[in-house]
Amino acid sequence: GILERLDAGEVVIGDGGFVFALEKRGYVKAGPWTPEAAAEHPEAVRQLHREFLRAGSNVMQTFTFYASDDKLENRGHTQRFTGQQINEAACDLAREVASEGDALVAGGVSQTPSYLSCKSEDDVKTIFKKQIDVFVQKDVDFLIAEYFEHVEEAEWAVQVLKTTGKPVAATLCIGPEGDLNGVSPGDCAVRLVKAGAQIVGINCHFDPETCVKTVKMMKEGVEKAGLKAHYMSQPLAYHTPDCNRQGFIDLPEFPFSLEPRILTRWDMQKYAREAYNAGIRYIGGCCGFEPYHIRALAEELAPERGFLPAGSEKHGTWGSGLDMHTKPWVRARARRDYWEKLKPASGRPFCPSMSVPDGWGITKGHADLMQQKEATSQDQLKPLFDRADKGL
Amino acid sequence: GILERLDAGEVVIGDGGFVFALEKRGYVKAGPWTPEAAAEHPEAVRQLHREFLRAGSNVMQTFTFYASDDKLENRGHTQRFTGQQINEAACDLAREVASEGDALVAGGVSQTPSYLSCKSEDDVKTIFKKQIDVFVQKDVDFLIAEYFEHVEEAEWAVQVLKTTGKPVAATLCIGPEGDLNGVSPGDCAVRLVKAGAQIVGINCHFDPETCVKTVKMMKEGVEKAGLKAHYMSQPLAYHTPDCNRQGFIDLPEFPFSLEPRILTRWDMQKYAREAYNAGIRYIGGCCGFEPYHIRALAEELAPERGFLPAGSEKHGTWGSGLDMHTKPWVRARARRDYWEKLKPASGRPFCPSMSVPDGWGITKGHADLMQQKEATSQDQLKPLFDRADKGL
Amino acid sequence: GILERLDAGEVVIGDGGFVFALEKRGYVKAGPWTPEAAAEHPEAVRQLHREFLRAGSNVMQTFTFYASDDKLENRGHTQRFTGQQINEAACDLAREVASEGDALVAGGVSQTPSYLSCKSEDDVKTIFKKQIDVFVQKDVDFLIAEYFEHVEEAEWAVQVLKTTGKPVAATLCIGPEGDLNGVSPGDCAVRLVKAGAQIVGINCHFDPETCVKTVKMMKEGVEKAGLKAHYMSQPLAYHTPDCNRQGFIDLPEFPFSLEPRILTRWDMQKYAREAYNAGIRYIGGCCGFEPYHIRALAEELAPERGFLPAGSEKHGTWGSGLDMHTKPWVRARARRDYWEKLKPASGRPFCPSMSVPDGWGITKGHADLMQQKEATSQDQLKPLFDRADKGL
Amino acid sequence: GILERLDAGEVVIGDGGFVFALEKRGYVKAGPWTPEAAAEHPEAVRQLHREFLRAGSNVMQTFTFYASDDKLENRGHTQRFTGQQINEAACDLAREVASEGDALVAGGVSQTPSYLSCKSEDDVKTIFKKQIDVFVQKDVDFLIAEYFEHVEEAEWAVQVLKTTGKPVAATLCIGPEGDLNGVSPGDCAVRLVKAGAQIVGINCHFDPETCVKTVKMMKEGVEKAGLKAHYMSQPLAYHTPDCNRQGFIDLPEFPFSLEPRILTRWDMQKYAREAYNAGIRYIGGCCGFEPYHIRALAEELAPERGFLPAGSEKHGTWGSGLDMHTKPWVRARARRDYWEKLKPASGRPFCPSMSVPDGWGITKGHADLMQQKEATSQDQLKPLFDRADKGL
User: Fold this and answer.
1) D261 interface with C at CB cutoff 8 Å
2) How far off is chain B from D188, nearest CA to CA, in Å?
3) Taking CB atoms and an 8 Å limit, are B352 and C355 in contact across chains?
4) Which segments constitute the Hcy-binding domain (chains A, B, C, D) (predicted)?
5) Reported pTM
6) What's the mean pLDDT in B153-165?
7) Is there a contact between C261 and D345 if contact means CB atoms under 8 Å apart?
């Protein structure tokens, strides 16, 4: 089990984000970001699971992000599959691939439009309960409540997840400034632990450097409160030094022009080392992570774990495979020193290196954030376009 | 057939590069860059074929890059599969997926270590012949000689390919400065057409802007010579404004820190339009292309082709899917105008926007470029490291 | 007098930094940074005073930076003039030009090698006393203690300056993190006001944005303590978003490659407005400021001051002079909107946009910072070069 | 005389551009760019001459740029001084300062609105003649025809200058693409030599790298034509890798946001060496050059010239003066190796590194370029603003 591994001091390598990776492969639609592909295109989801397993992941997380019924019905997006079908298919795929290697299956839930639309605690918990029922029936190994911007909703999720008796991990998508109501990372972590989470941390919205920094603040908070927990981080694979409190969603490049920000494998090795040094033992990724990013984590921590991942069969550590390159000046790059020092160019001399984030200074409770089932109309979009243009 | 389509004025969408995409997925080793995965991990290769098909590709190119026997034996890289096994498996996979949609199968050969090591014309042609035999036996629809730095070797390849009676396309990996012996793009194209290629163009080594410019020069050369041909381009998905004659191989970021240079889908739409305007009708990609890049080509040229690719089921044209996003300021990005004007930031303020290429000013014939079968020794690497460090 | 003007709510425009401007003109040596030019090349100093006066400065600050006797003898730098001669000449030049317009003369003292070398309070105060004696004899209008990294030394200076009965301004060269002993800007300001300064603020070491932010923190501290003061800012004319606590000294570009960081006149107008909005009424500049930068401050605050500076005779507000340019597309730049939106390119695609500062984590009290009179020997430099190279 | 020096193989160091330097000091108005300050504020012009002399200049060029009568009357700019007064005052100042050191006086003429407005050869020559009369009367040492975009007008100028019997230098403000009518640099140079110029070269509009490259092309042209000449270069002190044929005028940053492009002193030493290696012996500067830039040229070529300039009294070669800096990590920068390798950051992470030039594809003969005496009206400006905004 996950807790046995963490209690024993093992490093657990997580997987990467499915929605972004599958969007690039043609199976997830940006905007709704829903995971119907688990039922619709299982071969694509299975293949991505396999690649992460091969890259060194110890956890196959069910591809059930935003698979709550209220989200699946959101904004005019019609579905060919019920929420239950999607959740079941995702569990089956995760289990199938986990069995091919040394991996656990984690059932995942995430934040809901119901909470953002100010529905009651009962209503929101009912949403979570429907997903949990599938996870229990499919007997996943543990549960993850992830991608919450408000610690209150995460607490509710943890409370529901705890009813299963399975281990519970909880991650927020916040940075050092805290959740969208201004609760500090330390206080957030204490509340999640008190709600019953055995593993707490951060996922998505910020780059590895920021996420590790925020998990450190969570750890300090938990320790100061005299509590105990394990820590996890699943950051973006995008550099985001210019983010505000809301993270990469507010960067003007989100979600279709983030390419120049993608981390290299060497950036990832640095992240893995820093996360490890910060006491984080569940180390994975989120949006932007491709299998080779996860492999870089596993390679950096190979001394601690005692082995390389299967995928390293096709990778020379620190570029050593280049000793077989045709040209001698490329063979001269077959070494750690070269790649660690390199400051990679963007090839984009007409572009800046940082952006000014959007974000209209509102959060849960504001009318602009009430979610609707109907498709957004042109009449609704027009004032948004105008407002954005004036802000530029 | 491919010629019927091109003769009819159709746009043919190519696929993207397999070695880079599969390297990130854990199935190809950077350095040797050989395609043994076709035999070793067919499910991964099949899935990538499917993603390109779904993205709109009309051609499934066999994953036989560098699958010549002399390359497979190169530099201490031991193989579990014979060249024949790899070539056969690649043909079967391409055909299997092509049959799932409207696609042709193209058998591909590429430049050889034998040529670089100054072997005779007969020796080099024998190498090509072995791959061709498999393509004939597996009855591919047409043949592509691609990724040649010296037009002479490409001519030899075309001559061998022509013996099959199948249509032949030939692409060089050169830029406006011409091949590594200084033959201009126009002259190169004329020689390839005279050797028997019906389709000529450029693949790899340079970004779309450079490739389109170079194909234009080829077209001018062919027309000036009173010849006729179809034109194709399969560029990198990396911005390379800072390349010298040898292309991205010589950029210090090659191959492990190219991330900041990756093109966005909007960059790709611009490429598709410029290629089309230049009279290129076989429009695809090479290293760095992911399925969503190919889809962007198919979406840009949907008016000309009359349909969207299957993968657009999961993509709102020009970001329109964002009208379903949770936050109103992200919904304000659901429009063409927004994405066309955006200058995406790198998130890397400590990095430059252009690099100075390596490249030691040598080409075929120089002793430093003689290839060997044995693994490169530390004694061989040490002087390369020293030379590179002094050059920095 | 200065206090009458500030008490009346007037905006006082300061001058720019003399050492950097005169270094570029060939009269100050970078490294020692001493002001012997006041005696040696009075025509150059007089001309710079005149240009600042013409640009709108209300204060002619004596060119007596680092003109303490202990600094003038520092590190093997031999002088043809005594400290007294330099201080006297500087007073005469300032007074001569001030009389040509509406300006006051301010005598200035700055931090001393004696303090850094841990000399006693009495020793340090004796150093200041020698400069003050000249200022009293030459009857300057008020006094400025500027460029202090440690608030303690600034307090000592203020105490000496107060003995003259003249108004005293005191500025530190610190940022939001406080002085080099970690005293916060708010606490620093309170200590300076209690020591007797009527005007407090920040000069040098950081860009305008950072300086205004820091003065705001000083103002909050002073107001929270129930005290009263006037506020001044004299920042760098260099963008320094990447500075650590020690400011631009620690940037690798200091002092000979700062050019790409130089503020435009439009950046300066933004600074003037932000300083004014923050309640700062003594608004000037320091290193990097050229006369046109000061003019930009005076032009931005012309509505508040009721007049344009003399130098605006040769400047069209917001680029309006371009309506006389030869080429119509340059005439199209004759407007505020154009210049405010422009993001100026560096023309340096091989350079980054931010640097990692040096700074060896030491301050007053550390042996490495003890100052010496003898020239630095090669034996002393060698270990510094080695240490720096390893740190790169 | 200038020819004796050049014939003897001496390096002649030119001065820097007066209009830009004096604009920053408050004595020249950007837009008209006229030199009335020679008569209006002689102390400012004299001081700048002195600084260049001290920095190592061997030539004091009269501050008579755009001092032709037709330009002085241009676009509603009213003058308190006649053209003759300005030209006379400029000659006197240049001679006065030249006498203080080892410098020659050069009288300068530049392109005219009359030519751009398609006036006749006679009309244009009459304009030049009026300036020349003053130069002859004041007995300058030689003449320079500079800043011509069309070689035809430069030829006319040279023909007029030749009538004086004094040595004549002629520089165009063009790049490798040639003059605005498309005449190549080589052909331009041949025409200027045939018209009678003994010294030919390039000034303004492009950075040193581009100018040296263009002068090389001129030299090749002259040598190929079997002619002889001396060569000179007086480039910008701004990096302009992104210019089109019209040079920095067309960069969106011209003229008020060029700061990030300013060359460092180390960039200048590189320029001096490259110019020298290209066979250029008259090496100076134009817009953007400050005295310390000229000093850098003189320091780089001190081995060839046999002495350092007077201004080096205040400058340690290659940063050696920093061995006297207070902080040891700054003393570690007192060496050539450090400054040569440094890639200076812009401190502007929100800005790009290159720009897209304006330029509406028109030149002499187009109605939009006809010059007028009356001030530009708002009615004339409005369509220019609109056109520019659409182009953005």
Assistant:
1) yes
2) 27
3) no
4) 1-301
5) 0.95
6) 98
7) yes
Least Cα distance to D15 among D85, D104, D95, D100 occurs for: D104
User: Does pLDDT of C391 surpass 70?
Assistant: no
Q: What is the pLDDT of residues B240-283, one digit of tens each?
A: 999 999 999 999 999 999 999 999 999 999 999 999 999 999 99
Task: pLDDT band for D365, please (50, 70, 90 cuts).
Answer: confident
Q: What is the pLDDT of residues D139-196, one digit of tens each?
A: 999 999 999 999 999 999 999 999 999 999 999 999 999 999 999 999 999 999 999 9
Taking alpha carbons only, the member of B172, B99, B90 closest to residue B138 is B90
3-state helix, strand, coil in chain A (%, to 5): 50, 10, 40
Query: Tell me, what DSSP letter sits at residue D237?
Result: S
Q: How far apart are CA C385 and CA C392, in angstroms?
A: 11
- How far away is chain A from the Cα of B166, in angstroms, using its nearest Cα? 31
Tell me the H-state helices in chain B: 2-7, 18-25, 37-40, 42-55, 69-72, 83-98, 113-116, 121-137, 151-162, 185-195, 208-224, 265-277, 291-300, 302-305, 328-331, 336-341, 378-391
Residues, chain C, total? 392
- Least CA distance to B354: which residue of chain D? D353
CATH class of C2-341: alpha beta
Residue D139 neighbours by CB under 8 Å, 6+ apart: none
D195 by DSSP, 3-state: which? Answer: helix
State the DSSP string of D15-56: ---HHHHHHHHTSS-TTT---THHHH-HHHHHHHHHHHHHHT
Which residues of D fall in the annotated binding site? Answer: 204, 286-287
- Over the stretch D225-253, which tens digit does the pLDDT of each residue have? 999 999 999 999 999 999 999 999 999 99
Summarize pLDDT for A268-315 with one digit per residue, the tens. 999 999 999 999 999 999 999 999 999 999 999 999 999 999 999 999
Question: From its phi and psi, is residue C255 left (phi > 0), alpha (psi between -120 and 50) or beta?
Answer: alpha
Q: Between residues 101 and 160 of chain A, which touch chain B (CB distance below 8 Å)?
A: 113, 116
Cβ neighbours around D225 below 10 Å, total: 15
Is the model's pLDDT at A204 over the cut of 90?
A: yes
> Does residue A286 have a known ligand-binding role?
yes
- Helix axes C265-277 and C291-300, enclosed angle (nearest 10): 50
**pLDDT tens, residue by residue, A125-150:** 999 999 999 999 999 999 999 999 99
Give the closest residue to B125 by CA, choosing from B87, B88, B162.
B162
Rounded to two decimals, the ipTM of the complex is 0.96
Q: Is the peptide bond before B260 cis (omega within 30 degrees of 0)?
A: no
Q: Is the CB of residue A391 less than 8 Å away from at least one CB of chain C?
A: no
Q: Would you say A26 and B15 are in contact if contact means Cβ atoms under 8 Å apart?
A: no
Taking the CA of residue A249 and the nearest CA in chain B, the distance in Å comes to 8
Taking CA atoms, A51 is separated from A46, A57, A99, A298, B26, in Å, by: 9, 9, 14, 13, 7
How many angstroms away from the CA of B338 is the closest CA of chain C?
17
Paired tokens of B148: 């040649």
Task: Tell me the β-bridge partners of C234.
Answer: C203
Q: Which candidate, A292, A158, A172, A301, places its Cα nearest to that of A231?
A: A172
How many Cβ pairs closer than 8 A exist between chain A and D? 21
pLDDT surpassing 60 at residue B392: no
Distance CA D328, CA C136 (A): 36
> Amino acid identity of C340?
E
Residue by residue, DSSP assigns A5-51 as HHHTT--EE----HHHHHHHHTSS-TTT---THHHH-HHHHHHHHHH
Number of cross-chain residue pairs from C and D with Cβ atoms under 8 Å apart: 327
D332 neighbors C338 (Cβ within 8 angstroms): no
**Residue for token pair 């974000």:** A359
Annotated binding-site residue numbers of B for Zn(2+): 204, 286-287
H helix intervals, chain C: 2-7, 18-25, 37-40, 42-55, 69-72, 83-98, 113-116, 121-137, 151-162, 185-195, 208-224, 265-277, 291-300, 302-305, 328-331, 336-341, 378-391
